[in-house]
Automatic annotation (TrEMBL), chain A:
Protein name: Cysteine desulfurase
CDD domains: SufS_like
EC class (word): transferase
Stated role: Catalyzes the removal of elemental sulfur and selenium atoms from L-cysteine, L-cystine, L-selenocysteine, and L-selenocystine to produce L-alanine.
Automatic annotation (TrEMBL), chain B:
Ranges for domain NIF system FeS cluster assembly NifU N-terminal: 9-128
Signal peptide from the UniProt entry: none
The name this protein goes by in its record: SUF system NifU family Fe-S cluster assembly protein
InterPro entries: NIF_FeS_clus_asmbl_NifU_N
Top-level taxon: Bacteria
SUPFAM superfamilies to which the protein is assigned, alphabetical: SufE/NifU
Length: 407, 150
């Protein structure tokens, strides 16, 4: 076991002390959303109690202060993903909005009928539907790179899909339904060899591993703040500056303009061009606090700790007769998607809940993945930096008991 | 270990989940409607044979959780021999029981279905129990399109 301050970390997340149905909470629904450390909660309280006003507007003290905090958060995000400039960091509501922004702004302005967009078979609906909408609007074509039974991208077939009509690759860094970590460096290299830009959906990857957008050399990287222990309603679109410069605004309104007359509007420069209207100010400042928090622990350290948790959980799961793991990629993050023989995932979810254990039961916004495995749904336990082996023991004991009850 | 769930998962429900009644395709059905719960992926096809306003036979196919399987299994048992009007009344009573609209459930009228009353304490599971009945309602109204709980 690595040296990891688990007790201290757990103490930092007040909700972990809660009881659910009179049992200590075992929160294993982190792939849906993570809990928040006190530092993030305090940050939001501090902003609203001491330093809140609208940003980029007033000359008054509070507005200047709030603007400064907000832009400091942008710098923290820049540093966290190692972007070249804060101009490349666009704040949005979440990864979903970021992908929609790229589809509607980049897609509509740079792609045309007959152009192809390549995604993978393991995408979340958020990385499928925005592209389908674009296809309906302008006649682009969606191509899907297949995966094998283990839930791994079949790289050769992905590569074969990259043709002269391919104008964009959009692929998950880590699958939310299976836990698969895709070989993103190879994906980017293969696409770039044919001058195809790549968007990486980092919604699942961002809390689990260090991400360096310049080392990855991806063209767009998107993630949600709430999965990185930050507030809901926050998200980030990273884009290479040259690409963002060439893209038209996504939404019009205040904050994204330089000058407006009734005849013509001159847009603001980056990143404001893509940030129409008042953003989630306190929440984005809170995201900065979340980044400080995970950075202090260290993303490498978190990744190593979670890898141990996943190994332990997988070992335990493999010993339970009737428990089937869905998604067994060699490269995998802390997600255990499973089915139990003759027990529907919804029943698993309710029964585990009665033991205080929160897991997700359903299609995980990845219905094509469910179809691939021929199941209507799976149950999913997903791990975060604050989970423990003891919690995995509670989960496995619960699973054994409910198998018994269902008989 | 699951003491808290006794009201929800009663033995009758386990029994119907293990051995669903009327689980078959009905070749001579004159009503056939699909029901779907997109939230959890539960799917069922309900078959009815209605002769002279009386449900002479009821059966189903599909897959779902224990609550939804038990609900549709129990439903096919109880509606057999009932008139369309009686079945509609049962639908209303069942709906009120599971959504908690009436405090007092007429247990006599609803019979065995009372074992599903526990879902009212689990808002996330109410649709599991009511899918079968919404599908029945559509079948009685002779609707052709699939029923969705959304």
């Amino acid at each position: 076991m690595i040296n990891y301050p688990i007790e201290q970390i757990r103490a930092d997340f007040p909700i972990l002390g809660e009881t659910v149905r009179n049992k200590p909470l075992v929160y294993l629904d982190n792939a849906a959303s993570c809990q928040k450390p006190q530092a993030v909660i305090d940050s939001i309280v501090h902003t609203y109690s001491r330093e809140y006003a609208n940003i980029h507007r007033g000359v008054h003290t509070l507005s200047v202060k709030a603007t400064d905090r907000f832009e400091t958060a942008r710098e923290k995000v820049r540093g966290f993903v190692n972007a070249a400039s804060t101009k490349e960091i666009i704040f949005v509501r979440g990864a979903t909005e970021a992908i929609n922004l790229v589809a509607q702004s980049y897609g509509k302005s740079q792609l045309k009928a007959g152009d192809e967009i390549v995604i993978s078979a393991m995408e979340h609906h958020a990385n499928i539907v925005p592209w389908q909408m674009l296809c309906q609007q302008i006649g682009t074509v969606l191509k899907v790179a297949p995966m094998n039974r283990k839930g791994e991208l079949i790289f050769e077939e992905f590569e074969q899909l990259l043709g002269e009509n391919t104008k964009l690759v959009a692929i998950a860094h880590m699958s939310n339904a299976l836990g698969t970590i895709n070989p993103v460096e190879r994906i980017v290299a293969a696409a770039h060899a044919k001058n195809i830009p790549v968007l990486l959906d980092g919604a699942q990857a961002i809390p689990h591993m260090p991400v360096d957008v310049r080392a990855l050399d991806c063209d767009f990287y998107v993630f949600s703040g709430h999965k990185l222990y930050g507030p809901s309603g926050t998200g980030v679109l990273y884009g290479k500056q040259a690409l963002l410069e060439a893209m038209p605004p996504y939404q019009g309104g205040g904050d994204m303009i330089r000058m407006v007359t009734f005849e013509k509007t001159q847009y603001a420069g980056l990143p404001q061009k893509f940030e129409a209207g008042t953003p989630a100010i306190a929440e984005i400042i809170g995201l900065g606090a979340a980044i400080d928090y995970v950075t202090a622990v260290g993303m490498d350290t978190i990744a190593a700790y979670e890898a141990e948790l996943l190994d332990y959980a997988t070992e335990q799961a493999e010993q339970i007769k009737g428990m089937n793991l869905i998604g067994q990629a060699a490269e995998k993050g802390g997600i255990l998607s499973f089915t139990l023989d003759r027990i529907h995932p919804h029943d698993i979810g309710t029964m585990l809940d009665s033991l205080g254990i929160a897991v997700r039961a359903g299609h995980h916004c990845a219905m094509p993945v469910m179809d691939f495995y021929g199941v209507p749904a799976t149950a999913r336990a997903s791990f975060a930096m604050y989970n423990t082996r003891q919690e995995i023991d509670v989960l496995m004991q619960g699973i054994k008991s409910l198998i018994e009850v269902f008989g | 270990m699951f003491e808290d769930l006794r009201d929800l998962y009663q033995e009758v429900i386990f029994d119907h989940n293990r051995n669903p009644r009327n689980f078959r395709i009905m070749e001579n059905a004159n009503r056939r409607v699909d029901g779907f719960n997109p939230l959890c992926g539960d799917k069922l096809t309900l078959f009815l044979k209605i002769d002279d306003h009386v449900i002479s036979d009821a059966s189903f196919q599909g897959s779902g959780c224990a609550i939804s399987t038990a609900s549709v299994s129990l439903m096919t048992e109880i509606v057999k021999g009932k008139t369309e009007q009686e079945a509609e009344t049962l639908f209303t009573q069942f709906h009120e029981m599971t959504t908690g609209k009436t405090e007092e459930v007429n247990l006599e009228a609803i019979g065995k279905l009372a074992v599903l009353a526990g879902v009212r304490e689990y808002p996330a599971r109410v649709k599991c129990a009511t899918l079968a009945w919404h599908t029945l309602d559509a079948a009685l109204k002779n609707q052709q399109e699939a029923v969705s709980t959304e």
